[in-house]
Amino acid sequence: MATQTTASCTGSTLLQPISEIIDLPLDQVNFVACQLFALLMAVWFRLYLHPSKTSPFIRHVVATLLGLYLALFCFGWYSVHFLVQSGLSYGVMIFASLEHMHKYCFIVTLGYLIVCQITRVYVFDYGMYSADFTGPMMVITQKITSMAFEIHDGLSKRREGQLTPSQKYLAISRMPSLLEYLSYNCNFMGILAGPTCSYNDYMAFMEGTSYQRRHQENANGKENGKAKQPEPSPKRAVVSKLCTCAISLTTYLSLYRLLPVDHSIDEHFVSTTPFYLQVVYLYLAMLALRPKYYFVWTLADAINNAAGFGFNGYDADGSPRWDLISNLRILDIEFATSFKLFLDNWNIQTAQWLKRVCYERCPVNPTAATFLLSAMWHGVYPGYYLTFVTGIGMTMAARAVRHNIRPYFLVSDSHKRVYDVITWASTQVAICYTVVPFVLLAVGPSLKFYSSWYFCLHLLCLLVVLVLPVKSRRRQARAKEDAAQDEQRDHSSTDNNCNQKDKST
Fold first, then answer.
1. Are 328 and 345 in contact (CB under 8 A)?
2. By the 8 A CB rule, do 91 and 217 touch?
3. Which of 404, 430, 262, 271 has the alpha carbon at shortest distance from 336?
4. H or E element that contains 30
5. Which of 308, 311, 312, 348 is nearest to 329 (CA)?
6. Which of 102, 182, 421, 500 can pair with 148 through a Cys bridge, CB separation 3.0 to 4.6 Å?
7. Nearest-CA neighbor of 320 among 238, 225, 245?
8. Cα–Cα distance between 385 and 378 in angstroms, integer?
9. How many angstroms separate the Cα of 19 from the Cα of each of 28, 88, 250?
10. What torsion do the CA atoms of 317, 319, 325, 329 make, to the nearest 10 degrees?
11. pLDDT at 120
């Protein structure tokens, strides 16, 4: 297996013998080796290039050079695309007007990513779904577009009243220098697997002010903001996340070959296996596939924490939290009782990016626009679009069920537990059904799977949306605002009447 994919690996061949021994593709071996190297460099970076010992300039230079080295080792000359994409977007930020800069930057950055994805898939190797150079470009795309919108919010003439609290917090008050910009996009902690973070949080970490900003959020009530707090250690968080990585990797390597997802469309399996067992098999296959993502994202989070990045205040018991840029919550994923809860805890930073650049700013049908943007960002495989189009229907149906049926089960704890069990099972089946095309990638196998299920969940979602009424979130928010305004008018009119009576008296 390893020797067959060596030709498609564009990076270093130094670890080819290890690839052959463990029977894994060379590009994946390079990726894991670089992440482990980045973990060691993160510890060194925190101890020897601490903000108290060196300047932000040195930290930016070292972080950027190490990141570019890792990219070169993993992807060879394809890593030049990272600099080209970043350079084009920075030029747009500098020369375009602030009024439209964020829109132009969004189009240029996402367009360049899509062009690279098209060439990789349809020119080089359609089926090469492994560690490829467009993966880091997806994270860089998130960072560049987020930064463009945050610069627009901070430097344009928009009134503060037009910004949400999160937009005010993330707004950038000055144009980043080229070094700061490259460090943010290409630092060694996140160039290979992210996660995405806000520019302000990253700069606070590089300048050594992130701890002071978060000390005020101590939830144990003992912090008065006057005494200087000792800097919390990420050691416990890093060790815990590395243990999670080890368990996830072991689980994935043990099960993914035993429970392949494409077995669910095998004609003999479909014709001879009862439908309920097909459902169980699909759930187990997806359960065996998810630890791969748990491993990659948790390791990336541990690398950032080891460098001192990711501190997010304190828990109620006073213990430090290191989840500022965490990308998932595993238990909340596996025990999610709604489609929304699953998505809220899966790839968290990407969901935040979609919310900030699309959902909060799109004037027409933000839910559909957000799913469409997510599909375009993921790539050009048709399976991605089938998954996210299905996801739109699933989200609307789940929202309708929650608004119309859930209140009847809140009358007692026993009823709520029954509801939670039913919705957990339904959510897991719905997620598995939705993401099968995401794994199979091509149109033919995806439609073959849906046909074997008679498109049952598609039809069920359509029926639920047509039968159960539900207001959109924006309409609900507007209704609340209108009610509040009506209440204020009533109060003001009452006050006016009282004042008139006082004057007449």
1. yes
2. no
3. 430
4. helix 26-48
5. 348
6. 102
7. 238
8. 9
9. 9, 36, 17
10. -60
11. 85
Contact 85, 109 (CB under 8 A): yes
What pLDDT is recorded for position 483?
47
Write out pLDDT tens, residues 277-295: 999 999 999 999 999 999 9
SS3 149: helix
Number of alpha carbons in the 13 Å side-chain half-sphere of residue 399: 17
Question: pTM, whole model, 2 decimals?
Answer: 0.87
User: Looking at residue 231, what is its pLDDT?
Assistant: 85
Give start and end residues of each alpha helix (H) in 210-347: 210-215, 235-255, 267-272, 275-306, 330-334, 339-345
Find the distance separating the first CA and the last CA of the chain, reported in whole Å: 95
Q: What is the pLDDT of residue 158?
A: 64
| Nearest alpha-carbon partner for 186 in 274, 62, 292, 310 | 62
The first and second tokens of residue 254, run together, are 């043990």
DSSP 120: I
> What's the token pair of residue 133?
């150079």
**DSSP result, 265-302:** G-HHHHHHS-HHHHHHHHHHHHHHHHHHHHHHHHHHHH
Q: Which amino acid is at 459?
A: L
Residue tagged active-site, from 102, 152, 378, 458: 378
- pLDDT value of position 420: 92
* CA separation for the pair 150, 144 (Å, rounded): 10
- A 10 A CB-CB count for 248 gives 21
Catalytic choice (187, 218, 345, 347)? 347
C-alpha–C-alpha distance, residues 268 and 478, integer Å? 53
Tokens 């790539």, located at residue: 379
Cis peptide before 195 (omega within 30 of 0): yes
- CB atoms closer than 10 angstroms to residue 44: 13
Report the SS3 class of residue 260. Answer: coil
Residues of the chain with pLDDT under 50: 1-7, 126, 129-130, 219-227, 479, 483-484, 490-498, 501, 503-505
* Residue 347 among the catalytic residues: yes
327 is annotated as an active-site residue: no
CA–CA separation, 171 vs 152, rounded Å? 8
